[in-house]
Amino acid sequence: MQKNSKRNNNSRVSGIELNSVDAEKEKKESQNNFVELLPPEVTFKIFSQLDIQSLCRASVTCRSWNNTVRNSDSLWKPHCLTLRAVCQREIDDDLESGYSWRVILLRNYQKSKVKHEWLSGRYSNICSPLTLPEKIMYPMDVDTWGEILEAELER
Hints:
Structural class: mainly alpha
Order of helices and strands: HHHHHHHHH
Radius of gyration: 25 Å
């Protein structure tokens, strides 16, 4: 019985040691995390300097960065307004529907890239569906295809 008692005490002690090591690690990480150290306005200013890809990468760095980026809808607004040059109707419709800027960007980012390629004439010389680059296609609605057709007819 004493052997069991000794083992339990040792595991408890080692459990306490592990917990204190984890707490120290978390404390150290917290001290290195500018999101938790700086005022929110400064953190926002830093994140607002990032492009879309960097902002997305920052959001998967750690929980506190993810929460900050995800909950700062105004970080996404300038990127949406840039996409609006290509997808004005889609973004305006999403705004009227009450979507957040982040969700609007997620809904329209890939579409804007493909639509821009079509409108700029990149695919003007496509003669058959077999020559379309499949990996960058994106499903688009009838109105978008109408815009693309109008641009092609003007060429």
